[in-house]
Design goal:
Keywords: ATP-binding, Kinase, Nucleotide-binding, Transferase. Residues 297-313 have a biased composition (Basic and acidic residues). ATP binds at residue 50. With 728 residues, the chain is α+β, with helices and mostly antiparallel strands. Among the domains are: 11-99, 2-Layer Sandwich (Phosphorylase Kinase, domain 1); 106-285, Orthogonal Bundle (Transferase(Phosphotransferase), domain 1). It is built from 11 helices and 43 strands. The strands form 11 sheets. The protein has a 6-stranded antiparallel β-sheet with strand order 1-2-3-4-6-5. Helix 4 packs antiparallel against helix 6 and helix 6 packs across helix 8. The longest helix is centred in the N-terminal third of the chain and has 20 residues, at 118-137. The radius of gyration is 25 Å and the shape is globular. 56% of the residues are buried.
Length: 728
């Protein structure tokens, strides 16, 4: 959209010249809560900078909500949103800078040009469904999807404005009982049962947005918001004018019961084009991945290194839930939409995999009687997503279990990559991620499918043991020994027996309202629940015995903290500032009840942290790797830093010999020496059809004996020699 000059009577009259280091060049638009300006970064990138109005900046509660908006927007930055570049919620006039997206809003496009053609509408449907899929995988519910919050650049639709978004456990009402949102695009449960609102509310809004795009009006139309609210709850949606081939799908999105609405993945799957005209407008869909054979992993010589009239805004209505919302869930991105946890040596299932097991031939100079044989298991069909793998056991034999979105689960022999068995469950199973989470625990295998249903299977045959609807719980199950830990709607903690699904214990923990689990320590049997205050100034941490539910210790610590690991009996937590940047670590020793703060030498954006002995290793998504000494009194804290030149990374894992491994978005697997901070080696990129896919999170590699097992966007699973990264 063209910039608007700062004239007129709207609050742009305040017109600050700068937001932080960014000079504000022109006004892109103004709303009741703030003004969006055009600006440029030091490198020349065009930015859209939202600056909060002065009267709202004086409200501490509003500032807290703005901090949450920044945190939510950072979490979902990706291919379908405007990425956050910088922010300062603590400034005199709080502001947030995102990448400027040149293009009109859907509202402006329809107003100027009329309803979309059927082919354009199908393209919009697919793009918005994919956007919601990534937003929900990040653990966020948008709650205000509407035509003015959808931008239409040439690269496909972008969803903006996370001003009233919340993590899955949030409350939709303010203390005064006011509803927040836009009534024509709010789901029935937002009016009736605000505490039960989940991702399905965004799907309802998607249906309403599609009706507007197809007809120029909404499915519930009235000048009175109160009448619209009544229609949303009680009346059938008016789908007149929606193309006949899309009307049934849109109608399902607008179902009164959240459980009757399709998931974003199901919407995308339903959009197989009926004609060549439509096919030209639909993004390539991910198809189920099958494996026809285990093929040699042939190397190549070269290795590649890797706003609108209505601006984004914040609403004054709606309080920040206890727990600092988006921040406390940031370490469980993949676990919400489709989290797969593989429990004790077996796996449940979904998908048709197969293979001959032919190993990859080794280079002649490396062959010997004890030579390691790399392997690669390749998909037989196009489509699918990056698999996520987890180590386990089948009886006394080691096993590897992998799940891929849309294709299901396969048990692989880790010695040669040969598929042993595969299973396919319900239609939603395995249909989520670039990287559903995987783990091993207990004596059963389970998966959380879209919608919150848990299905548990026997490890040997993959037969179903039990299933349970956990959509009413605040988060996906957290594996802890032979238990699955969950948080109830009332904030109470509960443990389910992984083998039977029955409750082992249930306990309300004083001080917690909506906690989350971030860490389980097998050596001590302790699981750590945590919850940040609404203002983000303190965090309540509780160590719980996973087997009994007994509280081992509890402490409220200063700062916005997240448990990250343990070292020498102490708990290590990452500490974030008001800009949602990681600025340091906190070491808490429960014996003497002593908290020690370890500042980082620079601020990091969303690093994943792994603890190895007395060293914490923080890997930023932008590729910066920092090693920090966490021993009490160690100075300086920084041991080394390494710029890996990787733009997007997985969480790192540490293996034998002091080696750290992580994956890149292009399918590379990298190894780093944790003693000296040097890059030891990397595999070649493995892209799907030569294209880089976009993902909100990447699966971590697996270290299993001498093998380091990686996964890639081409749907492959591959193993390389942990002892010889220089020849990967």
């Amino acid at each position: 959209m063209p910039p608007l000059r700062g004239t007129g009577s709207h609050p742009e009259a305040e017109h600050p010249e700068y937001a932080g280091q960014y000079r504000l060049e022109a006004c892109l638009g103004a709303g009741g809560m703030g003004v969006v300006h055009l600006a440029r970064s030091a490198s020349g990138l065009q930015l859209a900078v939202k600056v909060v109005h002065r009267q709202h900046a004086a409200d501490p509660e509003f500032r807290a909500r703005f901090r949450q908006e920044v945190a939510a927007a950072r979490r979902v930055s990706g291919a379908f949103t405007a990425p956050v570049v910088d922010a300062d919620p603590a400034a005199e006039l709080p502001w947030m800078a995102t990448l400027y997206v040149p293009g009109p809003t859907l509202a402006a496009q329809v107003k100027r040009n009329g309803p979309m053609s059927p082919a354009e509408l199908r393209r919009l449907t697919a793009g918005l469904a994919e956007a919601l899929r990534d937003i929900h995988r990040a653990g966020v519910i948008h709650r205000d999807l509407k035509p003015s919050n959808v931008l239409l650049p040439d690269t496909g639709p972008k969803v903006i404005d996370f001003g009233i978004s919340r993590p899955y456990d949030s409350d939709l009402r303010t203390e005064t009982g006011k509803l927040i949102g836009s009534p024509p695009y709010m789901a029935p449960e937002q009016f009736q049962r605000p505490r039960e609102v989940g991702p399905a509310a965004d799907v309802f809004a998607l249906g309403a947005v599609l009706v507007h795009a197809a007809t120029g009006r909404g499915p519930f139309d009235s000048d009175s918001p109160y009448l619209v609210a009544y229609q949303v709850v009680h009346d059938e949606a008016d789908l007149a004018g929606v193309p006949p081939d899309l009307a049934p799908l849109v109608g399902r999105c607008l179902a009164k019961d959240p459980g009757d609405r399709p998931t974003p993945d199901e919407i995308m799957a339903a959009l197989h084009p009926p004609s060549y005209e439509a096919a030209a407008f639909i993004p390539v869909q991910r198809k189920p991945v099958t494996v026809e054979s285990v093929v040699p992993d042939r190397k190549t010589e070269g290795r590649a290194g890797d706003a609108d009239e209505e601006p984004t805004h914040v609403r004054a209505a709606g309080g920040l839930p206890s727990g600092a919302g988006a921040v406390k869930r940031r370490r469980r991105r993949a676990a919400v939409a489709v989290a797969v946890v593989l429990v004790a040596g077996g796996v449940w299932a979904a998908g048709a995999w197969g293979g001959s097991g032919a190993p990859e031939p080794e280079p002649a100079q490396r062959k010997s009687a004890a030579a390691f044989t790399p392997w690669r298991t390749a998909p037989a069909e196009k489509g699918g997503s990056t698999p996520s793998c987890s180590p386990g056991a089948a009886g006394t034999r080691p096993a590897l279990y992998c799940v891929s979105a849309g294709s299901g689960t396969v048990r692989l022999d880790p010695s040669d990559g040969r598929p042993v068995w595969s299973r396919r469950g319900g239609s939603s199973e395995g249909s989520g991620g670039p990287g559903p989470a995987g783990a091993v625990s207990g004596s059963a295998a389970y998966t959380v499918v879209a919608g919150g249903e848990v299905r548990a299977y026997s490890p040997g045959e993959g037969t179903e043991l039990w299933h349970k609807d956990l959509s009413a719980y605040l988060d996906s199950p957290h594996p802890a020994g032979d238990s699955l830990l969950v948080v109830r709607q009332d904030g109470a903690l509960q443990a389910l027996d992984a083998a039977t699904g029955t409750s082992r214990w249930q306990r309300a923990v004083p001080g917690h309202v909506s906690p989350g689990f971030a860490l389980y320590e097998p050596a001590t049997g302790l699981a750590y629940a945590f919850e940040s205050s609404a203002q983000g100034t303190t965090t309540l941490v509780t160590a719980v015995e996973a087997s009994t539910g007994r509280t081992a210790w509890q402490r409220r610590l200063d700062g916005m903290l997240t448990p990250a690991g343990t070292s020498g009996g102490a708990l290590l937590l990452t500490s974030m500032n008001q800009k949602a940047q990681t600025t340091g670590l906190v070491r808490y020793d429960p014996g003497p009840r002593r908290a020690t703060r370890i500042p980082l030498p620079f601020r990091m954006n969303g690093p994943e942290t792994v603890v190895a002995g007395d060293t914490a290793l923080l890997l930023e998504r932008g590729g910066t790797l920092l090693a920090v000494d966490v021993r009490p009194g160690a100075a300086p804290a920084e041991r080394w830093r390494l710029e890996t030149a990787v733009s997007t990374t997985s969480a790192p894992v540490v293996g034998a010999g002091g080696r750290l491994y992580f994956s890149a978005a292009d399918g590379r697997l990298l190894a780093v020496d944790t003693e000296h901070g040097t890059l030891l080696g990397q595999t070649r990129p493995r892209l799907r059809e030569g294209k880089l896919s976009h993902a909100s999170s990447l699966p971590s590699p697996v270290v299993l004996g001498r093998s380091v097992i990686g996964t890639a966007p081409d749907g492959s699973v591959f193993a390389v020699d942990a002892d010889d990264p220089a020849h990967w």
